[in-house]
Automatic annotation (TrEMBL):
Keywords: DNA-binding, Transcription, Transcription regulation. SUPFAM superfamilies: Winged helix' DNA-binding domain. Residues 13-107 form the HTH arsR-type domain. The lineage of its organism: Bacteria, Bacillati, Actinomycetota, Actinomycetes, Kitasatosporales. InterPro entries: ArsR-like_HTH, HTH_ArsR_DNA-bd_dom, HTH_MetalResp_TranReg, WH-like_DNA-bd_sf, WH_DNA-bd_sf. Pfam families: HTH_20. It comes from Streptomyces dangxiongensis. The keyword DNA-binding applies. This is Transcriptional regulator.
Length: 118
């Protein structure tokens, strides 16, 4: 039994075969959500929601994570009281080969071009 099953706090995620391109692209079209994905990809590890320093309210942050989770971009699980976030890289790469790497690379180039700190 997993922590989430034990606590009854399991969060809904699409199964890999149900992840669609349109919601993934929608989720990644928002600058804050793209920032979250870039940080997860760069760290290569699970991160708690509080580890992200986003210039938005807590409720807006929660919304962004929900959109990412419901589209299949991230997996969120509770570990004790912490909600952990992980990029679903294997699922995304398997379904849409090269998409995530291309988007992350384009975001990095844009950030350098515009002098963004993100």
């Amino acid at each position: 039994m997993t922590d989430t099953a034990a606590t009854g706090r399991d969060l809904p995620h699409p199964e890999r075969e149900n992840i669609r391109l349109e919601p993934v692209l929608h989720a990644l079209s928002d600058p804050m959500r793209l920032r979250i994905v870039r940080e997860l990809a760069g760290r290569g590890a699970e991160l708690t929601c509080s580890q992200f320093d986003l210039p938005v309210t807590k409720s807006t942050t929660t919304h962004h994570f929900r959109v990412l989770r419901e589209s299949g971009v991230v997996r969120q699980v509770y570990r004790g009281t912490a909600k952990m976030n992980a990029l679903r890289r294997d699922d995304l790469d398997g379904l849409f080969p090269g998409l995530l790497d291309s988007l992350l690379s384009a975001a990095d180039r844009q950030s350098r071009r515009l002098g963004d700190a993100a």
